[in-house]
Design goal:
Elements lengths: L1 H19 L5 H29 L5 H22 L11 H36 L11 H25 L3 H25 L3 H6 L2 H32 L3 H6 E2 L8 E2 L3
Antiparallel strand pairs: 1-2
Helix pairs in contact: 2-3, 2-8, 3-4, 3-6, 3-8, 4-5, 5-6, 6-8
């Protein structure tokens, strides 16, 4: 028994541990989160779009298909495009910027169609049932969706501004509006699975799985962007603040710089 224990310990120390240590680095975690985000966002989009196509894109299905494709998948991919670890090995930086801009502009068109079709459908229903008028823009799903769309419009505007003026403050504003726009749209997608349409078309277990996929995919897609925003915010701090406080990790402590 003692010999077997020593052999197992030797195997772990010599083979298993050296294999897992490189996987525990920050870069490895970033790569894992990025791959998870691609997988989960694509999975949610495929499930929703497939269901909507089966319903012939009638009524709410048309709205769900366009908004999920444009405001969830395209925006998420545009967000990941700026921090991808494998794309710079295939495309040049200029090509990645153009793809990012293309996805950013493309996402707003399907989103606009999805919102417009839902508004028209709601207006027709209210015209037919005047005694039971219901406003669509009062639910959490619709409010988050509209707020996210306007934030993405702001991100598009600041992005176009960066083409002419490369200012660090404008970079930060663009990133913040894009990040909060995506998170708000993801919240709208989350709340959409509480609606009658989702409850009719999927089982309760499937709805829970889709909501968890949206939550996990959103966190994974936003993790790298939040670190970059934190770094850009630090660079915008006044020099007096960075001199008074040591924000870099020292050997034993964080705190004031010692002369």
């Amino acid at each position: 028994m003692v010999n077997e224990t020593k052999v197992e310990a030797h195997f772990v120390n010599e083979f298993v541990w050296p294999f897992f240590v490189p996987l525990m680095t920050t870069v490895s975690c970033t790569i894992a989160l990025e791959l998870l985000a691609h997988f989960l966002m694509s999975l949610v989009t495929i499930v929703v779009v497939k269901k909507c196509l089966r319903l012939d894109l009638i009524g709410t299905a048309d709205h769900a298909c366009h908004c999920t494709l444009g405001l969830f998948l395209c925006v998420g991919e545009a967000l990941l495009m700026t921090d991808a670890w494998w794309l710079p090995r295939i495309f040049t930086h200029q090509s990645l910027v153009r793809i990012h801009m293309g996805l950013g502009m493309l996402c707003l068109w399907p989103g606009f169609i999805g919102i417009l079709t839902k508004c028209i459908s709601k207006a027709r229903i209210n015209a037919m049932e005047e005694d039971h008028y219901k406003s669509h823009c009062t639910s959490k799903h619709s409010l988050c969706g509209l707020l996210g769309y306007f934030l993405l419009l702001g991100a598009l505007g600041t992005g176009l501004g960066l083409v002419l003026y490369s200012i660090r403050a404008l970079h930060l504003t663009h990133r913040l509006m894009g990040l909060f726009g995506f998170v708000t749209v993801a919240c709208s997608v989350w709340f959409s699975f509480n609606t009658g349409f989702a409850r009719r078309e999927w089982s309760s277990r499937m709805v829970v799985c889709l909501k968890m996929a949206v939550l996990s995919g959103t966190f994974a897609a936003c993790s790298s962007e939040m670190w970059i925003i934190a770094g850009e915010t630090f660079r915008l701090l006044p020099p007096s603040f960075t001199k008074a406080v040591d924000l870099s990790i020292s050997e034993e402590h964080w705190g004031p710089v010692k002369d």
